[in-house]
Amino acid sequence: MLTEINKACIANKKLIVNAIGFQLVWFICVQGHNLYAAFAAIALLSLYQLIFNTQSKTWKALIAFSLVGYLGDGIIAMMLNLNYLGSFNINTNANDSFNESFNESFNENINILAPLWLLSLWLAFATTLNHSMRWLFKTPYLTVFIALFFVPISYFAGIKLSGSTFVLSSSSIPYWTFFIAEGVWWAILLMGYQKLTTSQKTTGMTHA
């Protein structure tokens, strides 16, 4: 009996460390400093491996989730003229008339990749999926609800804290479009991840 209680206490402590670790890395990442964010993410991933002794199959799923999410965020940002601080971009500023007119309409910097701190944030969140944030997958309705409404709110907080801005946003339309786009994107990702992990468990039981 005591052994079971001790195991439960240890498991709960691990979940608490997992949740606090993610929150700390989230705060570091949204300061918009790529190098600090990368170091924080590496530290969290190392701690994650140390605590949970994660198998390579799980690592592959988490990394795939993070990369797909990161690239999707970059596309959404590019489509909606969101300039994440520290993004990888190319400068369109030139002396010819075409580029002059182009720059007047848009922005002389075109973002080609979202910043490293955003990728670090995705990796940090991925460490919670099977542990402190596992409650997200209790029901599909809960997953979709959280994705559609609460995740975009955290994005706006991150955008403000990092000093990122919407370019040429003279109305509230880009904000609402971004809110909807990120919500739908996250709903697709979370549901897809849930199906992937469920199928992996089913396959594992079949071959056991």
UniProtKB/TrEMBL annotation:
Listed transmembrane segments: 24-47, 59-80, 141-161, 173-193
This protein's name: DUF2878 domain-containing protein
Keyword Transmembrane helix: yes
Organism superkingdom: Bacteria
Keyword Isomerase: no
A matching Pfam family: DUF2878
The entry's keywords: Membrane, Transmembrane, Transmembrane helix
Entries under InterPro entries matching the protein: DUF2878
